[in-house]
Design goal:
The chain is of the alpha+beta class. Helix content is 28%, strand content 26%. The protein has 2 domains: 244 residues, Aminopeptidase (3-Layer(aba) Sandwich); 88 residues, Elongation Factor Tu (Ef-tu), domain 3, CATH 2.40.30. It is built from 10 helices and 17 strands. The strands form 3 sheets. An 8-stranded mixed sheet has the order 1-2-12-3-13-16-14-15, sandwiched between helices. The chain has a 6-stranded antiparallel sheet with strand order 5-4-9-6-7-8. A hairpin with a 4-residue loop joins strand 10 and strand 11. Helix 1 runs antiparallel to helix 5 and helix 7 crosses helix 9. It is globular, with a radius of gyration of 21 Å. The two termini are 42 Å apart.
Length: 351
């Protein structure tokens, strides 16, 4: 399976926070021929170990990308069969009205999100954004049939098919952060061509969108020497301030800020320059809001890096990335990992 094919299957799949197991088999199957050992922990994180050549005193490097996605959840079923719902993770209600959805009940059920037509709205309602609690999902069945197939708490995803745009750009739902999982896959392929001392733990984490939970528990379990989070950053569009975004097609964003260990940051920039891998600087003065935040403050503290794949229209169902950015992220990771040895690690971690 190539990386783009994996990303397409992940994007079209369903892995709402708390229900990530629906893509477990896909991820494990993809990594199985390239990892030395794969386990799933009690919270649901998938930990995939690729061993290095230093069997005596191996360094442990943890790479994480969250496999969960934002979504919806069944909250109540009306007498007329309409489904009331709430959000799981950060969803902007303005982006979901009129969308097609899949209700993941006893079987996958197609539906649409509707609300009061503008013709019937009061004058005071016309200029206001419709709230999520005023929307319903219509799957076309009466209440009796809905109750046979749907339970309170069932997850719901927006129905959207992964598509290729012009050039190297692709569109789909939940590329935040399935693009990161795909980058880990591309990176393990790159690492198979290189010699590396470190044991590398690739972790597809759960529940990032609802509190960075999987990264806390998996980092505690692994206790790595270095932690690297792969996530997405705000891809530049005309209405966004330049200093708050990173450009599509110009490589990953390397985060600078309090969450990031400066010696490691300098090293990964050095590697990018050495191998002519394009990169950008992403300024994040406080916590990154990624798995990197959890890594940094687990146990006695883990020296941490964060790489961001530029992504447009974050937390909508039409997120866009450039596949070259994903591949350059993976390449940078692989060459950085290969550069870390027991001899240079201590110096890199000094402040």
């Amino acid at each position: 399976m190539d990386t783009k094919e994996l990303l397409e299957k992940l994007s079209n799949g369903s892995s709402v926070s708390g229900f990530e197991h629906k893509v477990n088999d896909l991820i494990i199957s993809a990594f199985n021929n390239h990892a030395d050992h794969i386990t799933t922990d009690k919270l649901g994180n998938i930990i995939m170990l690729k061993k290095g050549v230093n069997n005596h005193d191996p360094i442990k490097i943890m790479i994480s990308a969250h496999m969960d996605e934002i979504g919806l959840m069944v909250k109540y079923i009306e007498d007329n069969g309409f489904i009331r719902f709430t959000n799981i993770g950060g969803i902007d209600p303005r982006t979901i009205l009129g969308q097609e959805v899949v209700v993941h009940g006893k079987e996958d059920l197609f539906g649409i999100i509707g609300s009061k037509p503008p013709h019937l709205q009061e004058p005071s309602e016309i200029d206001r954004a419709i709230k999520m609690e005023d929307m319903i999902i219509d799957i076309g069945f009466p209440k009796e049939k809905v109750l046979e197939l749907v339970n309170i708490g069932d997850p719901i995803t927006i129905k959207r098919e992964f598509k290729t745009l012009q050039g190297d750009r692709v569109m789909g739902k939940s590329l935040d952060d399935k693009a990161g999982v795909a980058a880990m896959y591309e990176s393990i392929l790159e690492l198979s061509k290189l010699k590396h001392e470190a044991d590398v733990y690739f972790v597809a984490t759960v529940q990032e969108e609802v509190g960075i939970r999987g990264a806390f528990t998996s980092t505690y379990k692994i206790n790595p020497d270095i932690g690297i989070a792969i996530d997405v950053g705000f891809g530049s569009t005309p209405e966004l301030q330049k200093g708050s975004t990173i450009d599509m097609g110009k490589g990953p964003g390397i985060t600078i800020g309090g969450n990031i260990q400066p010696g490691l940051r300098n090293k990964i920039i050095e590697i990018a320059k050495k191998y002519n891998i394009p990169y950008q600087i992403e300024v994040t003065p406080g916590p990154t809001g990624t798995d990197g935040r959890a890594m940094q403050i687990t146990r006695e503290g883990i020296p941490t890096l964060c790489l961001s794949i530029p992504l447009r229209y974050m937390h909508t169902s039409v997120e866009i990335i450039d596949m070259e950015d994903l591949k350059n992220t993976a390449k940078l990771l692989a060459f950085f990992i290969a550069s870390i040895t027991r001899d240079n690690l201590e110096g890199l971690l000094c402040y």
